[in-house]
TrEMBL record:
The keyword ATP-binding does not apply. The lineage of its organism: Eukaryota, Fungi, Dikarya, Basidiomycota, Ustilaginomycotina. The keyword Transmembrane helix applies. This is Polysaccharide lyase 14 domain-containing protein. Residues 173-354 form the Polysaccharide lyase domain. Keywords: Membrane, Transmembrane, Transmembrane helix. The chain crosses the membrane at residues 25-47. Gene3D superfamilies: 2.60.120.200. InterPro entries: Polysacc_lyase_14. Pfam families: Polysacc_lyase_14. Coiled coil: none annotated. Residues 119-171 are annotated as: Disordered. Residues 131-171 have a biased composition (Low complexity).
Length: 354
């Protein structure tokens, strides 16, 4: 018997991202999907407030968290003012760098010349400590509408991997968006000025009994956005908070998304390496670098348009021969897939990071 929770809504690289300093905004709004779980590390997000679909078991508007049940759904409203329904446990950085806007600003579609400043950090940083830097003074938006759904069944497939590229979705959109700010000269949350934000969200559902969760969201990068060397985006996590930044991930895990130079994407996953089939993980196309970069180049993020991300995590039912799954789809097409994953802990919530 398994339970499935789905949800909707939003840096890995071969070489460490080169720190760059500049100013940029990321806007995030909610997109319809199943169980919503948000976690973040470097920028706060405001998604549409949750509501209950008629005919489905939903989440009440109280502060109590509901146990996941088959068919349960949580979906955000198009217009929202805060992230109260996400049950954010805490911000690790940059809580003041976010702002909810009633809609995506027209300036996000405009091409602008951006002055790029290069400045090295004043101390040595490990590869995993480097966060995304912004090269644009314009706004970046992401929209996400989320819903939660659970099921008593889950599917498995034989070990395989597929890879696809993606195109931007139409620019027309409505509803609130979350704007994330990166002050000029910011490049890491460990140095001032702090850019972006990071938080962990528990969601309205208690996911401790869920065996499969899907997080859906859309991200919008302004037409003039410079991807520079890369950055992170939201994903799911399990176990203790803090599964990132170079930690060994022995009792926790996280599966954030990320982008590289020119907007190429990948899964940025922290997993306990001694429990994984490393040989098979390295075969996830088109390229993988064990802990934490998988499927590098399997997707592309668009400028001046929305990119829809769907991330499904299914826990393993066999610790001897792990059969956990990460399944990433972009604009409806599967981009990254692997079904021999060992996850050391239950699904807990959303790690929102950039």
């Amino acid at each position: 018997m398994s339970e499935k929770s789905s949800l909707q809504e939003c840096q890995p690289m071969l070489a460490p991202p080169q720190p760059r300093r500049r100013q940029r905004w990321l806007l995030v709004t909610a997109v319809v999907a199943a169980v919503v779980v948000f976690s973040a590390i470097f920028f706060p997000v405001y998604f549409t407030r949750s509501h209950q679909r008629s005919g489905d078991e939903g989440v009440s508007a109280t502060n109590d968290r509901s146990i996941t049940t088959p068919g349960a759904v949580w979906q955000q409203k198009t217009q929202f003012r805060d992230l109260d329904d996400f049950r954010i446990s805490y911000y690790s950085s940059g809580q003041n760098n976010s702002k909810v806007l009633s809609s995506l600003p027209a300036s996000a579609y405009k091409q602008q010349q951006v002055r790029i400043e290069m400045k090295r950090p004043n101390k040595a940083l490990r590869r995993q400590d480097l966060t995304s830097s912004s090269s644009s003074s314009s706004s970046t938006t992401t929209t996400t509408r989320t819903a939660t759904r659970t099921s008593t069944t889950s599917t498995r497939s034989t070990p395989s991997s597929t890879s696809t590229t993606s195109t931007a979705t139409p620019r027309a959109t409505s509803g609130s968006v979350l704007s994330i700010f990166y002050p000029r000269n910011s490049y890491t949350p460990s140095e001032l000025p702090v850019g972006g934000t990071q938080f962990y969200a528990q969601t309205p559902f208690d996911l401790s009994r869920a065996t499969s969760v899907t997080l859906n969201y859309s991200v919008f990068f302004p037409a003039s956005y410079d991807f520079v060397q890369g950055g992170k985006l939201p994903g799911l996590y399990g176990g203790d908070e803090g599964c990132g930044g170079g930690n060994t991930a022995q009792s926790c895990w996280s599966t954030r998304m990320a982008w590289r130079t020119n907007g190429t994407g990948e899964l940025y996953a922290y997993l306990p390496q001694d429990k994984q089939n490393i040989t098979a993980l390295l075969e996830v196309p088109p390229y993988s670098y064990v802990n934490p970069d998988y499927g590098m180049g399997a997707l592309e993020y668009a400028r001046g348009g929305w990119t829809n991300i769907s991330q499904t995590i299914t826990l393993s039912t066999n610790n001897t021969h792990p059969n956990g799954i990460f399944d990433i789809a972009v604009n409806g097409n599967r981009a990254i897939y692997f079904d021999q994953v060992y996850f050391p802990a239950r699904i807990k919530g959303i790690l929102f990071s950039t």
